[in-house]
């Protein structure tokens, strides 16, 4: 596969400026970007389990801790006592609870967007 057609999936909220910046960055590096709306096509609990495993990150990193839904549900105090399964189910039922964007090529997963993080993960088209 050449660099020009390396494909990634971005799970995003299109109105989110951070997500738009991530898409712009990826396209600028020559990626073919398949966009998926985080609310209309929220990842299932099984998909989340796979994304979390590939990312190597703690599940807490997948929560949008600065979001309205997170605050409304009082999750700051509840997450610690929830099982991983409960957390995944919660994320799968509330797309806006998921930190965005999530980018994956099936072998790698990044959460959120910071140019230096993207450069490390996606800059080399590994």
TrEMBL record:
CDD domains the UniProt entry points to: ArsC_like
Q: Which PROSITE patterns match?
A: ARSC (PS51353)
Q: Tell me one Pfam family matched here.
A: ArsC
Q: Which domain of life is it from?
A: Bacteria
Q: Which InterPro entries match?
A: Arsenate_reductase-like, Thioredoxin-like_sf, Tscrpt_reg_Spx/MgsR
Q: Say which family it is in.
A: Belongs to the ArsC family.
Q: Which PANTHER family match?
A: ARSENATE REDUCTASE (PTHR30041), PROTEIN YFFB (PTHR30041:SF8)
Q: What is this protein called?
A: Arsenate reductase family protein
Q: What organism, scientifically named, is this protein from?
A: Paenibacillus chungangensis
């Amino acid at each position: 596969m050449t660099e020009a057609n390396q494909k990634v999936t971005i799970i995003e909220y299109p109105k989110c400026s951070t997500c738009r910046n991530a898409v712009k960055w990826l396209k600028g590096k020559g990626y073919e970007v398949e966009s998926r709306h985080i609310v209309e096509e929220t990842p299932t609990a099984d998909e989340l389990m796979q994304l979390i495993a590939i990312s190597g990150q703690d599940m807490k990193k997948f929560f949008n801790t600065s979001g309205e839904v997170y605050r409304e549900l009082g999750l700051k105090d509840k997450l610690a006592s929830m099982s991983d399964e409960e957390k995944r189910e919660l994320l799968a039922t509330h797309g806006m609870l998921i930190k965005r964007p999530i980018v994956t090529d099936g072998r790698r997963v990044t959460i959120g967007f910071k140019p230096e993080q993207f450069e490390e993960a996606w800059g080399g088209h590994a």
